[in-house]
Amino acid sequence: MKKFKIIFAIIGIVLLSSCEGFLDVKPSNSADSASSILTVSDAKVAITGIMRSMTSYNYYGRNFIIYADAKGGDFAIRSAGRGLDGLYVFNQSQTSGSYSGFWATIYSSILQVNNLILNIEKMEEEGNGTAALSEYKGQALTARALFYFDLVRLYGLPYNTSKTTLGVPLELELVDAAAQPTRATVEEVYNQIVADLTAGAPLMSKSKQNGYLNYYANLAIQARVYLHMDNFSAALTAAETIINDNVYTLYSNANWVDSWAGEFGSESIFEIAMYENEGNLGSSSLGYYLLSYGKVTGASGWFMASDYFLDRLSQDPTDVRWSIMDEDETSEPGNLRFGSCMKYVGGFAMNGDKGGAASATNIKVIRLSEVYLIAAEAALRQSTPDKAKAATYLNSIRKRSPMLAPATSSTVTLDMILDERSKELFTEGNRYWDMMRLGKTIEYNDDFISPQISIPHRTKIIDTKTFYKVILPIPQDEIDANPAIGEQQNPGY
């Protein structure tokens, strides 16, 4: 596979170009040797490079977040051709619009992780292990689990309905450039994800690690993964451990809006740092893709809230989450539409979350709010439902809508929880995955496009259980580099 043919000298280049804090020395993992990471300091450089790789516009820096809201129906596009609208209209094939950057970027990160784990284990075998090295190993295992979780959702069907179908290639060691790995099943990939999370958790710190993964980030990923596997008891256990340990606390309604203007708040379990002089994507950043057309130079109104999302938020006009929504380009006097989201520019001050560039705003990958909503769903859907507990956890987030009646054990439903997930986690990259794992139909706000255009690649409403384009094709570049995988292309492509 092309990405597996990248020698570790190139990995060093990636680190050099994306982590300017390390530009004064050559990173120790820049060599193409398995012995390139020799010390704790080397391991620290490597784990920092892995975190930085996640800020790529091809991953959490932009496209992976937009993917879930655009395909999940919470986003709409006003005009075709502005950028990434192929995600919304499902204009994707193995040769054109394949979004192969997901594949290349995530597998490149997995290569870095595998190199780090291999070298740490070598040091441990030689009797040179330390507590710090164990911590970095735990972070690397947890990162690899997240990477494979994201890959298998992009390229494989949901575990709870299709676990015997093909997922993605599993590579856990350094491989020869001529290797021709083939796809593991969805179940095999999930088993490896769980194995990595289980192995990594006891190695990790329980204290906050701003910009890095810690024990609670591992548990939060576990909760997500188990929810996708319909293992509700395990999801609830992981979520409740985070909640009950009280290392993180929910934002009050009074400070929810301001939380987007500051980094590493009390809810941030895993937040990726985006600094002005290190990996800042500028007008190509996630925040700029969500700004209203023409609000600032470089803001072209790529994506805005769909009518369906705004209808959910409109259930309560006093919902605190309206306070982070701005007028979009369709607004006019007497008919204002608040479809533009200001989360990823630091709120209306547009100083990012560090008092600088608007685009230098950290990416909040997992927040405590999501953990509460996972706990609510898991409690409701476990073999013996605990509706009172589900309502309690849901109300902890539902209180952001003061005029909505609190849920009770007799009124709480899965749809209420899903609505709350949509409202709370808007622009945080969750909606599509919820619709996929639950086998929901998705309706798109196509009539919002002006002038209206033909969308030949999907219908206005899709059935996630039958429409073949709900997962991405294996990119043609990958097939060219690895013909063995060509026979495993996703059906329909």
In short:
The chain is mostly helical and 493 residues long. Helices cover 42% and strands 5% of the residues.
Structure description:
The chain has 493 residues and is mainly alpha-helical. Among the domains are: 239 residues, Serine Threonine Protein Phosphatase 5, Tetratricopeptide repeat (Alpha Horseshoe); 88 residues, no CATH class. The chain is built from 19 helices and eight strands. The strands form four sheets. Strands 1-3 form a two-stranded antiparallel sheet. Strands 2-6 form a two-stranded antiparallel ribbon. The N terminus is likely disordered.
The residue-averaged pLDDT reads 92
Approximately how much helix is present in the residues?
Answer: 40-55%
Radius of gyration: 22 Å
Please count the helical segments. 19
CATH class of the domain at 1-204 and 459-493: Mainly Alpha
Strand order of the largest sheet: 1-3
Class by alpha and beta content: mainly alpha
- CATH topology group of the domain at 1-204 and 459-493: Serine Threonine Protein Phosphatase 5, Tetratricopeptide repeat
Strand content: under 5%
By CATH, the architecture of the domain at 1-204 and 459-493 is named Alpha Horseshoe
